[in-house]
Specification:
Length: 362
């Protein structure tokens, strides 16, 4: 008889938790112990549960809990979780039962998940629906909490093959950057992080994106870069930084997370050389998959993000759509209330941010 046990882990079991997450095909850095620490700095409380069979981890879930102001209830969110063999329904059911107990203790009204499972896995979507989950889609591409559409590149082939498989224009731009004298600094210090952030602000202003505070990036440095789970790359040209990227690495996967480029010297194509450098770095560190992260779901040329799609497509990754967001509801009326009030709250926040930007320009 198989006996499963569930328990919350503590700081002393960080390595055990991370090693399991990193070893599972559906493991993701957003389920790591460290990601919970980073989000704890922004008002979330991490709850890390592990499922064991005869003392050996077989499933895990890192839940972020946030209290809803005014009603003394909470929401649960497991970014890119849970982590387990998605074919094992018995373990999945056991995990859901244990999370439901935890939700009752913490007065959570629902659990949101957006697992690392491709959309073509119809059986998994049917499993979610049969267990009471409901789809929680808000839009395409960047409109979910995590990107629903990404490019992913299998980096198991040798470097020559990877380069040969790229679009000819992408190869040309990589070599152009090298010929023009662009260099990539791979051994960055924390002082370089401020330079990266300054360029990121410039990028967001140009492309009309929102950006998190510098303190958030400092937390990522302290919890991820310092522990070998992230790396900063800076492109230099004409004696100055002109672009930069921040990548995550966990197990055999690497993710391109943030990119920044100056308004100056964009014609020397530093972003292409940065990507190629990160791909080589990921391969050198034993990764088999490189994730370019978010691209739009709307692929019409009228979409302002179409250029981003073309840039990432040139590296010959596979255009991947995930199953998206699903909610498991524990308190239906509170859930309805949340979905009635939350969009109004988010709209107000966006208006406030837009107003601050407008006043800043003046």
């Amino acid at each position: 008889m198989i006996i499963l046990q569930a328990r919350l882990i503590n700081e002393n079991e960080r390595e055990i938790f991370n090693n399991f997450i990193a070893s599972v095909p559906k493991g993701h850095i957003l389920q790591s112990y460290e990601w919970g620490e980073i989000k704890a700095k922004t008002g979330w409380q991490p709850l890390r549960m592990i499922i064991e069979e005869t003392g050996k981890p077989i499933a895990a879930i890192s839940i972020l809990k946030r209290i809803i102001p005014g009603i003394k209830k909470a929401i649960f969110y497991a970014p890119r979780g849970p982590v387990l063999d998605i074919e094992n329904k018995d373990v999945f059911d056991f995990l859901l039962t244990e999370v439901k107990k935890l939700a009752k203790q913490h007065n959570a009204i629902f659990l949101k998940i957006d697992p690392d499972v491709p959309n073509e896995n119809k059986a998994f979507k049917e499993l979610l629906l049969s267990r009471g989950f409901r789809t929680a889609e808000k839009g395409e591409g960047f409109e979910g909490i995590q990107p629903k559409f990404v490019f992913r590149l299998d980096i198991t082939p040798d470097l020559e093959t990877l380069l040969a498989n790229m679009h000819s224009k992408t190869r040309y731009n990589i070599r152009l950057a090298e010929r023009k004298g662009v260099t990539i600094k791979t051994k960055c210090s924390k002082s370089d992080l401020k330079n990266f952030y300054d360029i990121l602000l410039e990028t967001c202003e140009r492309d009309n994106f929102l950006v998190r505070s510098y303190g958030y990036f400092e937390d990522m440095w302290d919890y991820l870069v310092e522990r070998g789970y992230a790396k900063l790359f800076m492109a230099e040209y004409a004696g100055q930084y002109v672009a930069g990227t921040l990548a995550f690495i966990f197990g055999k996967k690497a993710w391109y997370i943030y990119g920044a480029s100056s308004n100056s010297y964009r014609n020397v194509m530093p972003n292409y050389l940065l990507q190629w450098t990160m791909i080589k770095w990921a391969k050198e560190n034993g990764c088999t998959l490189y994730d370019f992260r978010g691209v739009p779901g709307d692929l019409t040329e009228e979409n302002p993000l179409y250029g981003l799609f073309k840039f990432k497509k040139g590296f010959n990754g596979v255009y991947t759509q995930f199953v998206g967001e699903f909610d498991l509801v524990y308190a239906p009326f509170s859930y309805w209330l949340w979905h009635t009030v939350e969009p109004i709250y988010q709209k107000g926040i966006r208006k406030l941010i837009a107003l601050k930007k407008k006043l800043k320009k003046k």
